[in-house]
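Look over both lines:
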Amino acid sequence: MAETSSDYMTATEAADFLGVSKATLYSYVSRGMLASLELEPGARHRSYRRADLAALKHRSTFRKNPDLAATEVIEFGTPILATAISQITEAEHSYRGVSSRELARLYSFEQVAEYLWTGEPAAAPNGAPLPPPRDVWRRPIDPGFGGRPRVALSPVERLQAVLPLMEKDDLHAYGVKPAVLLPAAARIVLQLAAFASGTRYGGSLAGTLADAWGADAAKLDALLVLVADHELNIATFTARCAASAGASIYQAVLAGLAALQGYKHLYGQVAEARAFFAEVVAEGGPAPVVRRYLRQRGVVPGFHNPYRRLYAGNDPRVAALVELLADSPRYPLLRETLDVAEAATGEHPRVDFALAVAEPLLELPEDAIFSLIALGRTAGMIAHVFEQYASERVIRPRARYVPRVG
């Protein structure tokens, strides 16, 4: 997304923002700590990127308070890993430099998954189209692999149970180069899709699921693309940590899926938002339900952000997901819920709310949304596993000892 004038500050605004004099601001520029820009040829005044100023201010705070820096980095703070896979700015969410919304509109999930894994074609951000999916997606996958579980397991849990078996059966399981591991990557995603659909791959992952569920394949494709990656979330970081230790692609994905299903991560947040919207449907309107949640819990699921905002306004994926639901008979109720909840909380909806309402509005089977989330995120996690292998670095943060009191 192109930058606008609101993304920049004047020298006076920049100095005020940093809490320094203009002389100090200019010294930051001369020392290479900050870039000053001439936005228009011949302009008398230089401008400063708002994002650069925020980063400089953040670094300054950390230098003054190292303990705060350590806490912030772990919880939700300064970026600690370099990645070329996805980017979150104040207004956009992109994969390898291309808007995720644009990719969801133009390409299949398999094409975008391969783009995340390989970065090819490198010219894609400049308009080069993504190629058709490789033959790695055409291998036969058994929906009954691993036998019938003795207890009821979700498709994701079944995948976790058989990943070690898949690893032992794969000659290339311990490779680290994407070219070698692409068949394994596709195999993992396809096996999860087979468990979710109960059928073999039918030439398109979204089409296979749509046939099994009686759903719209194009909408499932777009949803899978939009949810595929979101930078260094907990599940992705877990998978990268495992990969950094030398774990195989199968074991790294297994670790990431465990984190994904935690109640504080996307699974738990979607489950809460889904229960909230089910109450809205039962009540016939959002107002009494929103009022009850605020009175009893102080928050409305899907409209409460426990972390600092990643986006200045609305998460761009939310609008794209909501647009997919526009032809549902319940769409007017969804719009009313969005309006009432936003007005009552002052918060924008999170992506977990959009995913939660997608299940009933797309008329998917119960819990199908969790399989879709896992499918999308598995592709993203695999991309990060590949990137971590390529870095050859071990992720090993330090701990700060705090004596127990009392």
Observations:
- Residues 70-406 form a domain with the Citrate Synthase; domain 1 fold (CATH 1.10.580.10).
